[in-house]
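User: two proteins, same treatment. go.

Assistant:
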Amino acid sequence: MTAKSNRLRKFAATLLRKFQTAWLRYNPRVLTAHMLFWCIEAETFLKDWIKRRRYNIISPDVFQSRRKTDVVFVFGSGASLQDIAPEEWAKIDCYETIGWRLFALQEYVHANYLLIREVGQGAHKFDRKAQKQDSEEIAGWIVSNERMRDATIIVQEGWKAVAGNRFFGDGAAPSNYTYMRFRNGQRQAGALPAETFAEGITHVQGTLTDAMNIAYLGGWKHIVLIGIDLYNSAYFNVAPDAPTPEWVYWDSNHEQPHLTAQSGIVETVGNWAQWMSERGVQVSVYNPKSLLAEVIPVFSWDMIEGET
């Protein structure tokens, strides 16, 4: 093979790769999907902008001034919540709490803050009717749970916050609650927590990072991660022999490690805990079996003795 023919073959291979890349990005089907989702983003953003004024929405400055204790329990939805004794729940109930989505279903402690980032299933991305049903479902969870009565609900906002914007734009958000809105910040792997709300909340491997970042910005000095197991995919509100619920976004069974555990969340939490420790904030994990116990201290009541 001559040098000239070799160059021609390489040139042809390069052209083919560029054509394939362009086709994957710009074929009519992809462009139609992009246009459809842009229209959805525009519609939900506009409806949210019109209807949000009907709600009591506080600024992040007010949020930071409302802290009543130096300790906050950040709730996941792991099955280990079922193993906590009533006397332990009574102690936890003396401090402040933040959780997301399924936290609206728990009946163990009062809820101070509920974080809503995603409302429904990713499969409903283009399904207008299903999205509305998802919003109404989580609203129903909130209003029917006595533990949520005094909660402040923290909801994502911005052009791309379709779920949060639809929650308000469709009028699904309960009107008798206090709300706070937040924007996305950094999302790349290795990103550290935002140091102000104006930067946007860092979202890396999951909503846990949003909740930790908000807890840090809220001024709490002790952040206790509870119900974040990761060694399996069991939930506190799902029986061990029950089928995988529809609101789980991947095929799984209860004994498999949680999908988030495979994304690097353990390393991220370890790095964030170190970063926060350097700024006077202690992060610990309640469940000693949690995979997070490999990188952060296991919680004990001695850690917060004398704190209010």
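Protein 2:
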Amino acid sequence: MAKPGRGQNAMDYIAENKAFYDQFYESINPKQIAEKVRHRDAFLSGAMSPSWEGLYWGGFRRYLKGAIVLEIGAGNGLNSLIMAALGAEFVVAVDITDHTKRIVTQAAKRLMLSKKLAVWIGDFAEMNIEPASFDFVVGKSILRHLPSKVEEDYLYKAGVLLKPTGEMRFSEPTPAKLVSEIDNLYPPRDASPAHYRVLCSHYFEQVQLIPIRRMQQIKAQVIIARDSLVTPGIF
């Protein structure tokens, strides 16, 4: 499977999203994030948003034991920190804002998890990462931010990075029309189950979509893909 071509708007997308999240996460206190991680069991069993519920659907937390995980769009780092605390061997948190590194680094130090986490800042598709080195590549409400060509780049890269037995797992809101739309943050795109099934099938042999419903009109879909069709070493 050949690497897809990147669209002309990719750099504009990265710049606009980085500017937004540089401001959005500036005020996040790592101490508060660390406290949420300490109370992770209550958080994960409580009234989570559909995207959180979706990511942990099917007993995902059990599969984290001893796993090497990469999270795309780690944001405030809460999920990456929780995965490390749940027993992942190592977690790489990827985002475009430097605040992710600040928050995760300081919170991990408080939680004594520093040796289990790394933070990489930049455009995921352009990162130089060892192929076939992760058990899971995950994301929570990240694909909805991506223009179609950037999305293809990210899914292709996920296929490159997964071990032969690895799994890609994304939890995304549905339907396609978002309740809160911000100019240049959520590009016009198809976020339907059919779209994800067709697109993911270009890069993975097995593709599964699971609808998650918490209450009326608040939904998420879990995209699980296995058996990468991408040849390791191309990227």
